[in-house]
Amino acid sequence: MNGSHSSRKKPRKKIVGALLFPDFELLDIFGPLEMFGMLSDHFEIVMLAESAAPVASAQGPRSVVDRTFTDGTDIDILLLPGGQGTRREAGNPVMLQYLRDCYPQLAYLASICTGSGVLAAAGLLDGRRATSNQQSFAWASSCSSAVTWVARARWVTDGNIYTAGGVAAGIDMSLALIARILSEEVAVEVARYAEYDWHRDADWDPFAEQAGLL
Amino acid sequence: MNGSHSSRKKPRKKIVGALLFPDFELLDIFGPLEMFGMLSDHFEIVMLAESAAPVASAQGPRSVVDRTFTDGTDIDILLLPGGQGTRREAGNPVMLQYLRDCYPQLAYLASICTGSGVLAAAGLLDGRRATSNQQSFAWASSCSSAVTWVARARWVTDGNIYTAGGVAAGIDMSLALIARILSEEVAVEVARYAEYDWHRDADWDPFAEQAGLL
Fold first, then answer.
1. Do B155 and B169 contact (CB within 8 A), yes or no?
2. Which residues of B touch A (CB under 8 A)?
3. Does residue A128 contact residue A158 with C-beta atoms inside 8 Å?
4. What values do phi and psi take at B74, rounded to 5?
5. CA–CA distance, A26 with A59 (Å, rounded to integer)
6. Has domain B14-204 been given CATH number 3.40.50.880?
């Protein structure tokens, strides 16, 4: 998925920061990272966390941390997964302050699943439209009443903030973000290469009804 | 996704071994692990590799290793991802011998994407039907001529060996394996919880034609 060699000067790669915390949900973050990671000419992935120790997911597997919160913020696109750990992170002042400090320097901020509850707790979704995991919607929406919570959505875009529904919805959202940053054609090609059946309609969401939200 | 507490004696959890190697493909392994990991009453995930050092994926992010090849083999279900590193592993005698030693003790062996090329190189697919990543089909099928390679398939089952097509196909295959081990109802529930649009038909494969294989 990388272009041919060229003598023209290339623009700096965009840094995709994946923000980990204990009990993050595996597919929430590795689905999107597969999509961005396939475009290594354009994006560089950095695994971020509060501390330098490897971070255990809700499912068990542990990820190595590349940078901590004190290592500066040259992130272009910040991805915040969901998972059981969001219930703790929504009350973690260090995490919330990092998000507030980071956001003004970002090109895009994106959450997956209950990650939007943490963004809401940081105040970053106030006055905006957002969605979350359809099965944990009550918790996420309890994190801020100043957000217009959209129950039926695969993902929601409001300015440069993207919020996805549950788990696998992050893949669809990431492809939409890649389409915006690069092109629709590139996003289609990434989905094809990953043999992923991209749901390109942000309003496609059979899960909201199954979760009793409609 | 875990059942209620019970005083009845529970059966031992099945151990799902995820076999990592340098330049493995992220979603190949973390898609399936999300599905099995959601059922923590039934499955325990172990990250396996030849050496104890963290293993870097083709996309960059590194995973911590729980056990190496010398730590014994009480694995029930072995998952082998694809990725660029398969080209090296198909010629790595330590990896091939580990697979040969491990297989007779497994309940199920499953590969994703070009992982089937490594299984073929180990001789484990001889006389069987198998598939691989539709875009790297020529390479995978070159690893053994004693395999009946199926170009058009989301996944192929032959006895207790499962081989999936490219990347995201591993999620569909894993749900089919969960349906076989536990029940169709549980697999449907896992897909719903992950908000994943499960392709339940093993023959669903628009990617084979797009890759010019038909």
1. yes
2. 18, 25-27, 30-31, 33-34, 36-38, 40, 44-45, 47, 54, 57-64, 133-135, 165-169, 171, 192-197, 199, 207, 210
3. yes
4. -110, 30
5. 7
6. yes
Q: CB of B36 within 8 A of CB of B45?
A: yes
Determine which helix (DSSP H) or strand (DSSP E) holds B176, and give its type and residue range.
Answer: helix B169-181
* pLDDT-flagged residues of chain A (< 50): 4
Question: In A70-149, which ranges are continuous DSSP H helix?
Answer: 86-89, 93-102, 115-121, 137-141
Residue with tokens 């059942």: B3
Cα–Cα distance for residue pair A42/A13, rounded to 1 Å: 5
Residue that wins the pLDDT comparison between B202 and A3: B202
Contacts of B48 in chain A (CB under 8 A): none
Domain boundaries, chain B: 14-204
pLDDT, tens only, A10-42? 678 999 999 999 999 999 999 999 999 999 999
Identify all chain A residues contacting B196, using CB atoms and an 8 Å cutoff: 167-168
Domain A14-210 has CATH 3.40.50.880: yes
- Backbone dihedral region for residue B103 (phi beyond 0: left; psi -120 to 50: alpha; all else: beta): alpha
- Whether residue B27 and residue A26 make contact (CB cut-off 8 A), yes or no, is no
Q: What's the CA gap between B143 and B17, in Å, rounded?
A: 23
Distance between CA A88 and CA B135 in Å, rounded?
42
pLDDT beyond 90 at B69: yes
Cα–Cα distance list, B113 to B146, B162, B190 (Å):
19, 11, 22
> What is the distance between the alpha carbons of residues B90 and B148, in angstroms, rounded to a whole number?
18
